[in-house]
Amino acid sequence: MKEEKQQATTIITNNKQYNPTWAELYKTLKELLDRRQVLLEQVQEFKQIDEALKNYFSGVTICHIGPYKVCGHEVEEERFTLPLHLKNKYLHRDKKWKVEISRI
Asked: Alpha-carbon distance 50 to 48, whole Å?
């Protein structure tokens, strides 16, 4: 098991000392995708709980519940708006590759 983790780490970091076979690479990538799926479900649950708690505590300055301390404060946000003709003059667009991973 430790050797498998070593190989997975090596493949992830693109270490040129280790050249995996296609079968090893496929297996490692499949394991990483499976693990990603498990973690993704946990992240989504965390975000739902986090949003619900933050909505509930909105407007509360300080609160202690068991070992937890919840603090809140008002934040001032700054926005900068420009007329469209000026915005377009200074707008720069860069292209990058977007990767989306979904379970089929």
From this structure: 6
